[in-house]
Write a structure and sequence with these properties.
The complex is a heterodimer of chains A (514) and B (425). Chain A has 514 residues and is an alpha/beta fold. In chain A, 28% of the residues lie in helices and 21% in strands. Chain A has 3 domains: 175 residues, FAD/NAD(P)-binding domain (3-Layer(bba) Sandwich); 145 residues, D-Amino Acid Oxidase, Chain A, domain 2; 93 residues, Arc Repressor Mutant, subunit A. Chain B folds into 3 domains: 197 residues, FAD/NAD(P)-binding domain; 133 residues, 3-Layer(bba) Sandwich (FAD/NAD(P)-binding domain); 92 residues, Immunoglobulin-like (Sandwich). The chains are: A alpha/beta (514), B alpha/beta (425). At the A-B interface, α7, β19, α9 and α12 of A face β7, α4, α5 and β14 of B.
């Protein structure tokens, strides 16, 4: 029996787990994918928003500004990449600068510090590649860029270090009540927990529906209002996957802009953001298209064409020929466009953390604090004994940023730091071995990529994929055909040559020579 | 604690065919202390995974496999006592020719080089760079990665294969996968002509009944975990997919052979000027880059079709590097006479020539920008045509060359420009 089961190991789920791990309780995170950070958390703009966008008074507004503040503190405590580059909202229409003033006032109401409207001259000096049509901009110095994988992995590792258990490849199929606790069936196994948190991203509506069914059937305890706790009505919730497509450009283009550049929507259309990333690349996106399929993370010809056309509204000469990859993510959009966070009205101990769309990543730390507080209130959780919670987590060395003497010293400690596996992003075998043996472990190519940046450079794993596979085979003690890109079903090779063709795949009509 | 800087006469970055030939030539030219730096655990570079034959026809008049071709050069390097460090990655080259390396054995090391030869080769253009729509599942391999898995690791990357791009590695892998029992449905090429050698189309596709679909590209990739199907469509003259021509091919593997890119990140760190066309260094008749004492050869300079030409070219770079290391030439601000690529010629290597410093003859290599039949390759010294040679067929996949003769250049008074171009007659 756990005190808390958290469904979903994205940024929200991991943040909630980490904050709950401060308290004297047992926690289990269940995740349908093979690793943390596999859904919305991995495919987004990687921006820590300042907080001028959200409607004043909304949960989004509050958690965005709190999240922004916490994120900076957590970046050093948990050792993930965050760069305070600041953000600009560029207006390209002389007649539309009122829009900047609206944003500025909204930001001030939300509590965003240091917002300022700047004229073209100052804008050009700050951002030389801004479009010739730019007339003014809103300058938000608290906007940051962040490593979304690094954030989520850091939260998960720190949570695990403080006692949180993780179960992967464990999709939740059923939730029922049983006396004073809940039974969560995930990946074919049943977990007992006194409280359940729904942080299931684009699937949060399905989990919410399971909550309602469970609450309707049997309720472990009559719901009692807890302090000023938030509640969510026991009514159906619809999460619409809203697709965002992106271009990622090589580090050679990474300094094309110095800040995150947004475009103020005008009659000329809605621009897309152009921003440096903490990895030194340039990111361009996103589109916004509502889709039905919650797995529809494919890019489309239309989406990419739209980005190519719109990226030049605020920034000139975006060097799209330097693109190294394209990707799409799904935002968990809900019609009311606010986070849906709180305890289900009909039942004690079922908590929704749903509709976490942008600025969800920014808000993750504040969401963790808020939801852990709600759960603690319900279960009467108290802090661990003094010193039993360790808030500090150390990441792996970044060889791209070490000076050469420091790198040399690492090689002396472990020669594998001198064995470079990924040449484009300068990742050594030592870092890869390190993340394979951490908790939660990296056991696939994508899991290693998210943690080390290997295979994330300009050759996109062309050279190092076989080498990373070899390290996985050795360290995990598995056969090459068991190594996957992203969990079961994504195996990379079919077996030894000759033997590999012995078993024709189903539905493809055999693989023999014809 | 900072280690002492080592010194070597000629430092060759990369131990593939270009690096080996350059090192050998430098030794033969009298450089005593030649050091090859290689990332991999053995010399030979990509040749080691090219187990098919067809290498060395020009150089050795026989058809060798890649490893056999490499072995000839490795043996010669051994005879000459060329030093090498394996498992050693170069992480920086300064304009002052200090080469920084890292290896498991030595950690970080700095080497001051009398001369540097850049021979880092090239990399494959990845799927991401094409912005091909679709999912990003397992089963998408660049052809060279697949070749490594099959030939070096003994692993089969897939059973039902579609290949995008008709570069030589893709053609070779079409045959290789077929021989391993996989089924290769087709090779789609977006251009109206192949990017590979004619002989590879005949020997690797035609002989196995694998269709080559010219003016076709992949417009969608299905499969969230592993490739399940790709959709191929015909493209118009602007390379845009034509609606209604889509054909879906169920498959588990998509291989890409869509271009090779010279790997010049280190050249950039040294401040070497790069060509926008070849993406390789701009070089003179000695294959010296814009940074004195730094030379370039092989696929890092421009992508070659045959390894024989890589070896020939690299020998020039090695020889000149040895000369430079012995005693730098007097600095020469003039870059020589520009060699201009025009009318059907995409680029030339070298891109400028100093007639006073060249040998009796100089091979200028180039590629054409389209398929041509019955055209003449012409060389002009300013406005005077000095060469006019008919070629029955020329294609972008095959490298071409002209030979400049020193007496011709010296005889032309006030020479300001050498032009290489194609002409109808």
């Amino acid at each position: 029996m756990y005190d808390v089961a958290i469904i979903g190991a994205g940024a929200s789920g991991c943040s909630i787990a980490r904050e709950l791990s401060r308290l004297d309780c047992s926690i289990c995170v269940v995740e349908r994918e093979e690793d943390v950070c596999c859904g919305t958390s991995k495919a987004n703009s990687a921006i820590v928003h300042a907080g001028f966008d959200a409607k004043p008074g909304s949960l989004m507004a509050r958690l965005n500004v709190e999240g922004n503040r916490l994120m900076r503190a957590w970046a050093s405590e948990l050792d993930f990449d965050l760069m305070p580059v600041g953000s600009l909202v560029v207006c390209t229409d002389e007649g539309a600068t009122d829009g900047l003033e609206v944003l500025r006032r909204r930001g001030e109401t939300n509590g965003v510090p240091d917002l300022r409207i700047i004229g073209r001259d100052e804008l050009v000096s700050m951002e030389p590649n801004v479009s010739d049509a730019a007339v003014a901009a809103l300058w938000a110095p608290t906007g940051c860029i962040v490593d979304p994988f690094g954030l989520t992995v850091a939260l998960a590792e720190n949570a695990a270090a403080n006692g949180v258990e993780f179960r992967f490849n464990a999709a939740v199929t059923d939730i029922t009540g049983s006396g004073d606790h809940w039974l969560v069936t995930a990946g074919g196994q049943t977990i007992e927990a006194r409280a359940v948190v729904n942080a299931a991203g684009v699937y949060a509506d399905a989990i919410h529906a399971l909550f309602i069914a469970a609450a309707g059937a049997t309720s472990p305890a009559a719901p009692v209002a807890v302090g000023a706790g938030l509640t969510v009505p026991a009514e159906p919730l619809t999460i619409v996957p809203r697709k965002g497509e992106y271009y990622l450009l090589d580090t050679t283009a990474g300094r094309h802009v110095r800040h995150t550049v947004f475009t103020l929507p005008t009659a000329m259309g809605k621009g897309v953001l152009v921003s440096p990333t903490v990895h030194g690349n340039l990111i361009v996106g996103p589109t916004a298209t509502d889709v039905e399929d919650k797995e529809a993370t494919q890019t489309t010809a239309e989406g990419l064409a739209e980005l190519a056309a719109r990226c030049s509204i605020a920034v000139r000469d975006v060097p799209l020929r330097e693109v190294i990859t394209t990707f799409a993510g799904l935002r968990a959009h809900q019609a009311a466009h606010d986070f849906v966070i709180g305890e289900l009205e009909a039942a004690a101990g079922l908590f929704d953390c749903a509709a976490i769309e942008s600025p969800g990543l920014t808000s993750a730390p504040a969401i963790g604090v808020l939801v852990s507080g709600l759960v603690a209130g319900r279960l009467g959780l108290v802090s661990k004994t003094e010193g039993a919670f360790d808030p500090v987590r150390h990441g792996i060395p970044d060889l791209e940023r070490l000076d050469l003497d420091e790198w040399d010293a690492l090689c002396r400690r472990d020669p594998a730091y001198g064995s470079v596996v990924c040449r484009c992003r300068r990742v050594s075998e030592a870092q890869i071995v390190d993340v394979i043996h951490r908790v939660p472990p990296a056991t696939s190519l994508d899991a290693i990529k998210r943690r080390t940046n290997a295979m994330m450079g300009r050759c996109q794993g062309g050279f190092c994929t076989p080498k990373v596979m070899e390290v996985l085979v050795r360290e995990l003690g598995v056969a090459p055909e068991e190594v996957t890109k992203c969990g079961p079903g994504s195996e990379l090779v079919m077996g030894r040559i000759k033997d590999g063709t012995a078993m024709p795949p189903e539905g493809l009509g055999g693989g023999g020579p014809r | 604690m900072r280690k002492a800087i080592e010194r070597h006469d000629v430092v060759v970055v990369g131990g593939g065919p270009a690096g080996l030939a350059a090192a050998i030539a430098a030794r033969e030219a009298g450089a005593d202390d030649v050091l090859v730096l290689e990332r991999d655990s053995q010399l030979g570079g990509i040749l080691n995974q090219c187990i098919h034959n067809g290498f060395g026809l020009h150089t050795f008049k026989e058809e060798l496999t890649g490893p056999e071709y490499a072995a000839r050069y490795v043996d010669r390097a051994d005879e000459l006592g060329v030093a090498r460090r394996l498992g050693t990655m170069v992480v920086d080259i300064s304009a002052g020719r200090v080469v920084t390396t890292v290896s498991a054995a030595e950690g970080v090391t700095r080497i001051a080089a009398g001369a540097v030869v850049l021979a880092m080769g090239c990399r494959e253009r990845p799927r991401g760079a094409l912005a091909t729509p679709g999912h990003r599942p397992a089963g998408i391999y660049s052809a060279g990665t697949a070749q490594r898995l099959v030939n070096m690791e003994g692993q089969l990357p897939g059973r039902e294969v579609v290949i995008l791009g008709s570069g030589d590695i893709g053609l070779i892998m079409a045959r290789r996968m077929t021989l391993e029992g996989a089924h290769v449905a087709c090779v789609a090429e977006i251009m109206p002509y192949s990017g590979g050698l004619k002989r590879n189309i005949v020997q690797c596709l035609d002989d196995y009944g694998i269709p080559l679909l010219l003016s076709h590209t992949v417009v969608d990739i299905e499969g969230r975990r592993r490739v399940e199907a790709v959709t191929i469509a015909e493209v118009d003259e602007g390379l845009r997919p034509i609606a209604g021509t889509e054909v879906r091919h169920p498959c588990d593997t998509l291989m890409l052979s869509v271009g090779l890119l010279p790997e010049n990140e280190l050249s950039r760190s040294a401040g070497v000027e790069l060509s926008a066309v070849t993406r390789g260094p701009v070089v003179d008749q000695d294959l010296q880059t814009s940074v004195p004492g730094i030379f370039a050869c092989g696929n890092v300079l421009h992508v070659h079709d045959l390894v024989d030409f890589v070896s020939q070219e690299a020998a020039v770079a090695g020889l000149q590097a040895a000369r430079y290391a012995r005693g730098p030439q007097t600095p020469d601000d003039s870059r020589g006479i520009p060699v201009v690529a025009a009318e059907g010629v995409r680029y030339t290597v070298p891109s400028h020539v100093d007639p006073d410093r060249m040998g009796d003859s100089l091979t200028v290599r180039f590629r054409v920008d389209n398929e041509y039949r019955d055209r003449h390759v012409s060389v002009y010294l300013d406005d005077r045509r000095v060469q006019h040679r008919r070629r029955r067929i020329m294609a972008p996949g095959e490298m071409e060359q002209v030979v400049l003769r020193r007496p011709d250049l010296l005889a032309h008074e006030g020479l300001s420009r050498i032009t290489v171009k194609l002409e109808e007659a």
